[in-house]
Amino acid sequence: ESLLLLELSTVALVAAMTTLILRQRPSSSLLTSVSALSFLFIHCAYALTYSMIQVSESFTALAGASI
């Protein structure tokens, strides 16, 4: 749970920082947006994978308890 919260807060922080950078300096927008988008994609994929693992573990525990 706490790891997923950490990932989501990291994603939110990077999104906010990227928005601020793009507002301050539009000239560096391409490199900033590409690097930030790749960073956000990696962290979102990690958070999604982690939550899917948690769900599958809880389903496995439920299935084991019902047998």
Average pLDDT taken over every residue? 78
The proportion of residues in beta strands is under 5%
Listing every helix as H and every strand as E from the N terminus to the C terminus, the arrangement reads HH
Alpha carbon gap, first and last residue: 27 Å
Shape: elongated
Secondary-structure-based class equals mainly alpha
Tell me what you see in this structure.
Keywords: Membrane, Transmembrane, Transmembrane helix. This is Putative transmembrane protein. The chain crosses the membrane at residues 6-22, 34-53. It comes from Rhizoctonia solani 123E. Helix 1 packs antiparallel against helix 2. 91% of the residues lie in helices and 0% in strands. The chain has helices spanning 2-24, 29-66. It is an all-alpha fold and 67 residues long. The model has no long low-confidence stretch (mean pLDDT 78). The protein has one domain.
Annotation keywords:
67 residues
Summarize the structure.
91% of the residues lie in helices and 0% in strands. The protein is mostly helical. The protein has one domain.
